[in-house]
Design goal:
3-stranded antiparallel beta sheet; single chain; alpha+beta; 19% helix; globular
Length: 130
């Protein structure tokens, strides 16, 4: 299974990605690997704007035809944007997991937390080891 993982993103061991935009904003979604494991996404429950999230804690849910899966915050902070297109088009997660299928954006409390996340090559190695 050969997958490309964008080098500009950070990754979690629970298969979320984080893309830093500016000083404190981080966009969050799930990896190509995760969306393939989940298969057909039928519903996404996003956190509320203004909600406080903690790194490593569940803050959203993705439902597929198979099951429901928790989505974990890669960094701590406050939710400042959600991708409301997912309400009517949850399949965007399967179609474009690194682009139009993003979930929410967090204003980070501590940008240093990004250093605890995996880089693309580290994430690819994690998957290879299974």
């Amino acid at each position: 299974m050969k997958m490309d993982f964008p080098k500009n993103l950070f990754y979690t061991k629970t298969h979320e990605w984080a893309r830093r935009e500016g000083d404190k904003e981080v966009y969050v979604g799930i990896t190509q690997y995760a969306q393939e494991q989940i298969s057909d996404v039928v519903f996404v429950e996003l956190p509320k704007i203004g909600a406080t999230v903690s790194a490593g804690k569940a803050c959203a849910v993705v439902e597929s035809v198979k099951a429901a899966y928790d989505i974990y915050a890669p960094v701590s902070g406050r939710v400042v944007k959600i991708n409301d297109k997912l309400e009517s088009s949850p399949q965007l997660v399967n179609q474009d997991s690194y682009g139009k299928g993003w979930f929410f954006a967090i204003e980070m409390e501590n940008p240093e937390e990004l250093k605890t996340l995996l880089r693309a090559d580290e994430y690819a190695n994690l998957l290879e080891k299974g």
